[in-house]
Amino acid sequence: MTETVDAVLIGGGIMSATLGTFLSELQPDWKIAVYERLHDVGMESSNAWNNAGTGHAALCELNYTPEAADGSVDTAKAITINEQFQQSRQFWSSLVDEGVLDAPSTFINSAPHMTFVRGEKDVAFLKKRYEALRTQPLFEGIQYSEDSRVINSWAPLLMQKRRAGEPFAATRVTSGTDVDFGALTHQLFDNLRERGAEVVTNREVKSIKRQKDDTWLIKWRNSIGRTPGATRARFVFVGAGGWAIKLLQSSGIPEISGYGVFPIGGQWLKTSNPALVAQHKAKVYSQASVGAPPMSVPHLDTRVVNGEASLLFGPFATFSPKFLKNGSMFDLVAQVRPGNLWPMMKVAIDNPSLITYLVGELLKNHKKKVDSLRTFMPTAKDEDWELLDAGQRAQVMKKDPKKGGVLQFGTEVVTSKDGTIAGLLGASPGASTAVSIMLGLLQTCFPDRIAEWEPRLRELIPSYGEKLNPRPEIAAEVLSETAETLALTA
């Protein structure tokens, strides 16, 4: 007899870990099952080396503050993303207080967030961005400088042997963070197991089909022994990274029609040279190359993984038709359906600069990649840096009434009309805003329960349902309290 559970979460990443934690807190009587196709959780995009570990709060990412036609800087998206990250900080703080998560340093550490630009045009833009953000409560404390001595005190590797007379500028926010989403994912799943959830690895979901009683039949196969099986679920979440589109298509929900994804891989340059690591304690972002997707904005980052500090620079784009690092070479073509063929073709036609960028990236060898690093760090030596493969990102392609099809950067939740199945498509800043994304999913999929759940949600996230930025005193209090609990620089 096929087992029936309340919720099946497909994919063992930070999204399923976050949603599973919410459900176990809000409905402790529910039976929850998590299925991951690899031998462990957190092995794909949530793995520490497959992402930059940036606690994306829009403190340093220029693509979140676009310049309008009149020359003004639009801060709306930056404020929204920062609000979302503050929800993550509050949630993690509550879980630390309740003993669900281990010592904060095992998954989050202070790392000032900086933006560094060169050339008169970018310097002028960065100054306007600074002026637009410095009056916003969530960006209080942002610093700006064009003084080489000041910037050198912030990040010495940026300034050593910098060419004289070159215009440059930087901003800095000391409350930035470096997050090990792999460690966080493992700790959340460990807690779910302790609370009675079934977390199964080496189990690949093959199909999802709606049944006459409106439950979902999830057919799966175990990697070890190749034994097949099935589970019925009243609710399904597909958090399987790039493979989410394949499983949502198999479900037959009309809401997925018109969607496609385009895979972009990446590589990092990494160094563990203690002399270099000691001189750079920040995440430093700059402008993206012409035609580059926002996720490819170059940055030189402090990383702390398993207590060990290192530096990463990149990412450098790579290409594979796989939707996951451990995917299939047929992923890209297997997703094609009559409903998404034209939107995908329009994206290809309308984005020649992206194709040019990818080709240019693929032609770079190790030496050329270190040459790119030297725009950040003029003293970089080839022998200090090794190449490391990053994760696969599946960028969303979707129908557009005006253009026919658009390439969308960011994340998007696709939900059935009745809310019994939902899946996440897209990439950055997904992990950092997982809490906000899952709160939105709870409201969409469980509208009849959300009022009942609200008291517990407010315990976990004190600002739940409210904005911090319009309330400076509350924003300062929340930032201070979470920084203290997470042992961060406020």
TrEMBL record:
<comment type="similarity">
    <text>Belongs to the MQO family.</text>
</comment>
<keyword id="KW-0560">Oxidoreductase</keyword>
<dbReference type="GO" id="GO:0047545">
    <property type="term" value="F:(S)-2-hydroxyglutarate dehydrogenase activity"/>
</dbReference>
<dbReference type="Pfam" id="PF06039">
    <property type="entry name" value="Mqo"/>
</dbReference>
<dbReference type="InterPro" id="IPR036188">
    <property type="entry name" value="FAD/NAD-bd_sf"/>
</dbReference>
<dbReference type="GO" id="GO:0006099">
    <property type="term" value="P:tricarboxylic acid cycle"/>
</dbReference>
<protein>
    <recommendedName>
        <fullName>Probable malate:quinone oxidoreductase</fullName>
        <ecNumber>1.1.5.4</ecNumber>
    </recommendedName>
</protein>
<keyword id="KW-0285">Flavoprotein</keyword>
<dbReference type="InterPro" id="IPR006231">
    <property type="entry name" value="MQO"/>
</dbReference>
<keyword id="KW-0274">FAD</keyword>
<dbReference type="GO" id="GO:0008924">
    <property type="term" value="F:L-malate dehydrogenase (quinone) activity"/>
</dbReference>
<keyword id="KW-0816">Tricarboxylic acid cycle</keyword>
<comment type="pathway">
    <text>Carbohydrate metabolism; tricarboxylic acid cycle; oxaloacetate from (S)-malate (quinone route): step 1/1.</text>
</comment>
